[in-house]
Amino acid sequence: MSEEMGRLLWLPAKASPPDPDEFLSEALEGWKRQQLAQNLGLGTIRRRSRSVLRMTSFVGKAPWEWLPGDADDFFSHLRGVQNLSHNTVRAYQADVKLFLDFAGDSAYDWNARCGQLFGTVFSQVLSELNRATHAQETGEASKRPFSMQELQDFFDLADLEPERILNSGRKGALAAWRDAVMFKTIYAWGLRHNEARHLILADFSRNVRAPSFGEWGVLRVRQGKAMKGSAPKQRTVLTVFDWASEMLDHWERVGRPRFGLHRSTPLFPTNTGRQLDQAYLRRRFHALIGELGFAPGLDIHSFRRSYATNLQIDSGYDVSFVQLQLGHEHASTTSIYTIASPDYRARELTRVLTGTLVRSGALLPDPDRKESP
């Protein structure tokens, strides 16, 4: 009699279904590699992946199951319920569209694998029918530049704030002085407020063709607005206002040293030597605007709008010069900033009519002559 020993039998196990989350992670990782090959920044890549994951969470379906109606629901929720800005929603749409273009491209095998695993493929759910137009195409009608009187009133109040704080016995007079100088700097060089936050002393230098500006004749902007996925754009801005160089020279000699900081720290530092927070600047700006009671439509970017308008319309600089100062790639962008004042239009009308009369040989009216009764 023989004794049988136990034997290990291998029974066929039921194949586990494909994991959608794992496949999506692989696709996003492949997208990351493709973007790195394009030399895009890691911050941009992470933001784009977050946009895809956020829509996935909202829709409750994997991207290869999305329909145009899902995109409509998601982006209308961002705009109408969460009240995100036009440009922010457009950025989300661009991220999602880029991912679907990548995943559905025949140069890669994501669609083939997706079809084998899930029986469906990636398809584009964004088109001109449900995609927000560029802000420059729609125009931000609610935003406007300062009038010259509003600009003067704003700077006067900002200059008065340190004195009011000192008289009240409160702290913060030095910070209020810093804020006033920073707001004027944003206007005087046509800066975005994020560009102004990053300024250091070494960004300024002499302009040999305009020695009267001293050490403040040329500004090298290092943190200009970047194209999607690119490094910050740099540009050179020439100083055009005498009062601006005098203001910064006084701030550097008298105001900034009171922070006790090194030259490499920001031109407008906090008490700890850090850059000012963008939210703080917006709060300070709106506090002053609210006290003045100006009509709606003004934000910190209105300084830049006013700079462009005043240079071209009131000071007579050529549009190409203004375009270079602002760092715009296209002159059409600069034209959006340029809104003629009523006084300018009246002067232009007088100039053209006078020229027409001169060419026709007609007698010009004498402004001092009184009409006979």
TrEMBL record:
It comes from the Bacteria. Residues 141-351 form the Tyr recombinase domain. Keywords: DNA recombination. InterPro entries: DNA_brk_join_enz, Integrase-like_cat_sf, Integrase_catalytic, Integrase_SAM-like_N, Tyrosine_recombinase_XerCD. The keyword Phosphoprotein does not apply. Pfam families: Phage_int_SAM_1 (PF02899), Phage_integrase (PF00589). This is Site-specific recombinase XerD. It comes from Paeniglutamicibacter kerguelensis.
